[in-house]
UniProtKB/TrEMBL annotation:
Top-level division of the source organism's lineage: Bacteria
UniProt protein name: succinate dehydrogenase
The organism of origin for this protein: Neolewinella marina
Keyword terms, alphabetized: Cell membrane, Electron transport, FAD, Flavoprotein, Membrane, Oxidoreductase, Transport
Gene Ontology biological-process annotations: anaerobic respiration
Length: 664
């Protein structure tokens, strides 16, 4: 299958503009004859479906939710990046490009990242036109705040609900196209296989989750906007239903999975509280704008806090270690996520953790409350305000900026974060790996495209905060609607694809046989049991720190677990009915293969970069040690049940200098 990045020639700053102006187009009268299937209705899928409908294509869009509004994009909290330079603080398209390349530890494709930075400025205008209620300054201008890994303020936000508001904007655009008949929505449908015909993606097999019926859906092109696979770790910040099965079904048909071991560990999550917890809750990275991260300097103080004899309020300022500010003075609490996460792990490994499990650090807002309170009092001419009044005013400012996040924290933990410092610990969040795509966002399978978190293209080994929403909307609104034309312009003479053809019949037969096999096992363990066990293996051997011995052991354990799964899983109920346990079993079966590939990818990459930290490859002070001479490539894996095959896309850096990241 073809494996070329297909980056157009020309200077980096002009590449996208020139390519967009010269690429093949599909005339409006021909668009009406072309069918496109889009799987997923999050920011990437929803934006693409709405835009394709607006352009005139015949669109079918699929979601396993009851409504597109339920897509996991709704959970994004802190903001969306764009190089608008509203703060006049030195931001630019190039700086956003450079920050993203550097933040990803130089493991992403230059051309794709620069294009992302270019179109970022259009996304904000699009969202504002849709009525997204971004935060504004007193004079009415859109407000910005900072996120990790940058020294400018370029993040637009709607309190802690940015993903929800952006998704509603995309959803209303999608709803308009549905009402006009340009887009057909299939809710409560899950893709269970990709249909190939003559070497091209020609449709999907979907399962109606309410009736259990399998359905055939044909199209000239298939687009996957199905998010990431972080739930392979079981405990993550993703919704419980988030999964990697649509992408993995494509991999089983020959699509390459790129950089699967590049997993983002988010540093500000509510710590694990019990063995039977099913998911973790994210506290937005935006909180690090005002919160200071610390642990006690003394082991005895940390032990007293863990045992309940002291609280964070009992530790005097002189006995607190603000370790991010100490280790990384240039960026302080706003270092990138991978750096902040490893630093938290190091502090807890040294015995300085502050939760009963020992796996938590503090995120403290006391200094910010006092700072904001004094400023507010001054602006109100309260020049002799008491400490209590200053605190009252400061709490009001923090509440206005982060109120819903603080409410969520208090409901989950039972502690008031306005009084007690938050307890946080790193957790699995986002996956930078995904389906390999070229510059056109097309996989190595002709006619199959992947957008948003489902592809690997923009974030390298570590995603900067507030860039996920940017990529999803960029791909859906401003990139794929252009680049898909390079493929569809060659398909205008192709007749409507027949879902009754032999390729579809064979694909449906195989998908049904897989379901029948699962239902026939009648073992003794639930799919959830296997998923939980897989998650423990993944976190232990392929989590925040990895080493060769552990990765080899983890792969063996996953293989054994997969054999046990196909021997002893129990799926209750029937096939032709609403059966969420069957849905779960199908997803866990895919995770058991994907988890093994992640172990192999991490073992192959003998370096540390971004979220991939191999213990054998670190500097004297514990930072990631890249090996650009051997590993400046994209790992694109072709699945094989016996031994997956590695393909390499060499990364060429013509516009940035490869150098060791430093945030000190």
């Amino acid at each position: 299958m073809p494996f070329q990045p297909n980056v157009p020639p020309g200077e980096l700053s002009q590449k996208w503009k020139q390519y967009r102006s010269s690429m093949p187009l599909v005339a409006p009268n021909n668009k009406r004859r072309l069918e496109v299937i889009i799987v997923g209705t999050g920011l990437a899928g929803g934006a693409a479906a709405a835009t394709f409908g607006e352009l005139g294509y015949k669109v079918k869009v699929f979601t396993f939710h009851d409504s597109p509004r339920r897509a996991h994009s709704i959970a994004a909290q802190g903001g969306i990046n764009a190089a608008k330079n509203y703060q006049n603080d030195g931001d630019s398209v190039y700086r956003l490009f450079y920050d993203t390349i550097k933040g990803g530890d130089y493991r992403s494709r230059e051309a794709n990242v620069h294009r992302l930075a270019e179109v970022s400025v259009n996304i904000i205008d699009q969202a504002v036109a849709q009525g997204v209620p971004f935060a504004r300054e007193y004079g009415g201008l859109l407000s910005n705040r900072s996120f990790g890994g940058v020294q400018v303020s370029r993040t637009f936000y709607a309190r802690g609900q940015t993903g929800q508001q952006l998704l509603l904007g995309a959803y209303q655009s999608l709803s308009r196209q549905i009402s006009l008949g340009n887009v057909e929505l299939f809710n409560r449908h899950e893709m269970i296989d990709l249909v190939m015909e003559n070497g091209k993606a020609r449709g999907i097999i979907a399962r109606n989750l309410l009736t259990g019926e399998t359905e055939r859906h044909a199209a000239h092109a298939v687009v996957l906007g199905t998010g990431g696979y972080g739930n392979v770790f079981y405990l993550s910040t993703n919704a419980m239903n988030s999964n990697g099965s649509a992408a993995w079904r494509a991999v089983k048909q020959g699509a390459y999975m790129a950089n699967p071991c590049f997993t983002q560990i988010h540093p500000t999550c509510i710590p694990v509280s019990g063995e039977y917890q099913s998911k973790l809750t994210l506290m937005s990275e935006s909180l690090r704008n005002d919160g200071r991260v610390w642990v006690p300097k003394k082991l005895e103080d940390a032990a007293a806090i863990r045992e309940g004899r002291k609280t964070g309020l009992d530790i005097p300022e002189a006995d607190r270690d603000y370790y991010l500010e100490r280790r990384y003075p240039a960026f302080g609490n706003l270092v990138p996520r991978d750096v902040a996460s490893r630093a938290a792990k190091t502090a807890c490994d040294e015995g300085l953790g502050v939760s009963p499990t020992g796996l938590a650090v503090y995120l403290d807002f006391d200094a910010a409350i006092n700072r904001y309170g004094k400023s507010k009092a001054h602006s109100q001419n309260e020049h002799n305000a008491s400490p209590a009044r200053i605190r009252e005013l400061g709490v009001g400012v923090i509440e206005e900026k982060y109120g819903n996040l603080f409410e969520m924290y208090e409901k989950i933990t039972g502690e008031d974060p306005y009084v007690m410092p938050m307890k946080i610990y790193p957790a699995v969040h986002y996956t930078m790996g995904g389906l390999w795509v070229d510059y056109n966002l097309q996989t190595n399978i002709p006619g199959l495209f992947a957008i948003g978190e489902a592809n690997f293209s923009d974030h390298g080994a570590n995603r900067l905060g507030a860039s996920a929403l940017m990529q999803g909307l960029a791909d859906g609104y401003f990139v794929l609607p252009y680049t898909i034309g390079t493929y569809l312009s060659e398909e205008i003479r192709s007749p409507m694809v027949d879902p009754e053809g032999p390729a579809f019949q064979e694909a449906e037969k195989k998908a049904q046989a897989r379901i029948d096999r699962l239902m026939a096992i009648k073992g003794s363990k639930s799919p959830e049991t296997f998923h939980r066990e897989l998650g423990k293996i993944m976190w232990e051997y392929c989590g925040m720190a990895r080493n060769a011995e552990g990765l080899k052991k983890g792969r063996r354990m996953i293989r054994e677990l997969r054999e046990e799964f196909w021997r002893d899983v129990y799926v209750p109920g029937r096939i032709k009915e609403y059966n969420p346990e069957l849905e779960k079993a199908l997803r866990v079966a895919d995770f058991l293969e994907l988890g093994e590939l992640m172990m192999m990818d991490a073992l192959d990459r003998n370096e540390s970069c971004g979220g991939h930290f191999r213990e054998e490859y670190q500097t004297e002070d514990g930072e990631a040690l890249r090996r650009d001479d051997e590993y400046a490539y994209v790992s694109a894996w072709e699945w094989d049940d016996v031994e997956p095959i590695l393909h390499k896309e060499e990364l060429i850096f013509e516009n940035v200098e490869l150098k060791t990241r430093s945030y000190k």
